[in-house]
Amino acid sequence: MALIGANELKRKMLILVDGQPYTVMDVFFASPSARGASTMVRTKLRHLITDAVLEKTFRTNEKFAEPDVALTPASFLYTNGEGFHFMDEQSFEQFSLTADQLRDERLYLKDGVSLHVRRYNGEPIAIQLPPFVELTVANAEPGARGDTGSGGATKNATLETGLLVRVPLFIKEGEVVRVSTQTGEFVGRA
Asked: For residue 139, what pLDDT is reported?
């Protein structure tokens, strides 16, 4: 397996540091002022499992292995007191993740949503949502100011999963809306 040199690091790369899997959030190359001193690579890393952020400096000649991380297609099945249950669409194996592992991503999950699961050494550790999900408006403030569609005025709406979004005034309870999983914002009617 080829190793990644510290001088080759880029944002979003996955590397093993001290046997732990990290994703590179930021990289900064610091050139030394003294002659003969080696360039240092300052990084900001996020642990793939615990989400802890680590700032670490490396010499350019240091090398890193890539962690055994894979993305596989999966679908969300249901949630109960034990967690959020999914099915791997390749092996049909069922697995679950906790609310702590999913954090805010759980607010985009409804039965049947297709997504990808991130596995580390074969174990599911996180999900990767599709760019957009379609959710039903469970509760919306009443519209005001003539319910204009072009005025740009918005109101709060709670979706079926508990996600709170700003929607245009003309959106009513029971309508299905499209939401960006990256920004958490209303994109349009479904």
From this structure: 94
